[in-house]
Amino acid sequence: MSFREFNARAPIVVTMLAVVLLSLALFQGSTSSAHAAEPHTGGSSAPAETDRAPNPARGTGGASDVTKPRHRHNKTKRRGSTDRTTHRFPVAGPYSFGDAGMRFGAPRDGHSHQGQDVAASEGTPIVAPAGGSISATGYQPEGGGYYIVLSATGEDYDYVFMHLQARSTLVARDQRVRSGQRIAAVGNTGRSFGAHLHFEAWRGPWFAGGTAIDPLPLLRSWQGSSTGR
Ligand SMILES: [Zn+2]
Questions:
Q1: Could you tell me the distance, in angstroms and rounded to a whole number, from the CA of residue 161 to the centre of ligand 1?
Q2: pTM of the model
Q3: What is the pLDDT of residue 225?
Q4: How far is the CA of 81 from the centre of ligand 1 (A)?
């Protein structure tokens, strides 16, 4: 076509292009908003693993608690000392770290183990390894059973205790506890097979931006610090 013809048709072409681009944009907008609405519909059933931490956002009332600004960590919380002069081994009685299957990172159904299991007799006292405040308590019949989350003071750790004995929890959310204070007892609740404490250590807030780390070095550094052993 000649230049003159192109000029004559240009407005039509431009208009058509605009219409196509606009519809593409609208289409993309509608699909992306549809995707954005999906995450909460998927996977809302109970965790299918032995002792996985439940997501408090799915629970009733735990979510706001673990997203408080006090958890704006790294900068505000110092690493602090986590040695046995200030900390206590959480199981106040005979215990065992067991075999490889009880370690952090051990394979589980569809994921890896996020904590260290500490085998002990049902009813063995569990004490706070550090001073802090209780940031969550709850019950997950298909997951961690009865559990407690402790946000330690002066350090960047949340500590998580799971499969607690029924009716053994002695603390409530927002309660302050001191290092060595009894908070619960070893149990076998939730998806647990055999009495043990499932213990997690998180750098930063539990399921609210933090990361689970291998707690075994911490546990080892506290060995011998509980009165029950
Ligand atoms: Zn475990």
A1: 9
A2: 0.68
A3: 78
A4: 25
